[in-house]
Amino acid sequence: MRSIMNRNSSASRATRIIVQVTAVLVAAALVGCKTTPYPPAPQSAATPDYLYKIGPLDSVNVVVWRNPELSTSVPVRPDGKITAPLIEDLPALGKDSTTLARDIEKALSRYIRDPVVTVIVTGFNGPYPEQIRVVGEAQKPQALPYRQGMTVLDVMIAVGGLTDFADGNNASIMRTSEGGRQYSVRLKDLVKRGDISANVDVKPGDILLVPQAWF
Questions:
Q1: How many domains does the chain have?
Q2: Per the domain annotation, does 53 fall within a domain?
Q3: I need a surface site. Which of 76, 144, 147, 210 has the fewest CB within 10 A?
C-alpha cells in the first residue's frame, strides 16, 4: 500500500512539474511573439538618383524622328527583349529608357542614316529584383512595381491592408539591397491606428513579411 501511495505521489509531483514547465514555455512564447529581434526600419530610405529600369511585360513606345513607319508601341517579352520594325530580339530588361533609345539607334543605323530615337515607357512593372513583394497576412499578397518615394503606407493601401489574423506590429522588411537585412515595422499602428510615425520608406526589392498573430 505504501509503495502504491509513493508511486501516486511521485506521479502527482511529475504532473505538477510538467504543468509548470508548460506554463513557462507558453508564457515565453507569448512574450516572444510580442517582440521582434530586428531593429526599426529607417524612416527615410529613398534614393534620390533612382532611375526606373524596364521590366518584363512593360510596354515601350518607340518614336523614330522623321520615320513614322518605324515608330511603334511594343511589349517587353517575358525574356526581357523587344521586337520592332527592323529590330529583332533587342534586350531591354534592366535598362532605362535613354539607354534603350541609344541601343535602338545603333541597331537602326544599319538601315537609316543618323536615326534619332525616343523611348517612352508605359505599363510599368519593373524588373523582378526591384519589385516590392508582400507575403503573409495581407488582404492581397502580391508583387508591386517600385515607385520613387514609395512608403510602407503606399504598399499597404495597394494590398488592401491587413487581415484579421495579422500580427501587424511584428511585421518586418527584408531588404535585398542590403544583403537580406531585416527591419521591424509597426503595421498595426500605421494601418489600424493611423500612427503616421510608423510610416517608413521602402527600397527596390524589399520584401514585406506580415506574420500571423498568436491567440
A1: 2
A2: no
A3: 147
pLDDT tens digits, 157-198 = 999 999 999 999 999 999 999 999 999 999 999 999 999 999
Alpha carbons 169 and 167: distance in angstroms, whole number: 6
The range of the structural domain enclosing residue 149 comes to: 38-48+128-210
CA distance 200 to 215: 28
Q: Quick one: pLDDT at residue 30?
A: 45
Q: Same domain, yes or no, for 110 and 148?
A: no
CB 210 within 8 A of CB 135: yes
Query: Concatenated DSSP letters for 66-123?
Result: T-GGG-EEEEPPTTSEEEETTEEEEE-TT--HHHHHHHHHHHHTTTSSS--EEEEEES
Q: Say if residues 109 and 86 touch (Cβ distance below 8 Å).
A: no
Question: Residue 150 half-sphere exposure, CB side, CA atoms within 13 Å?
Answer: 21
- CA 175 vs. chain centroid, Å, equals 9
pTM for the complete prediction? 0.79
Nearest to 39 by CA among 211, 181, 202, 205: 181
Quote the cell numbers at residue 126. Answer: 519593373
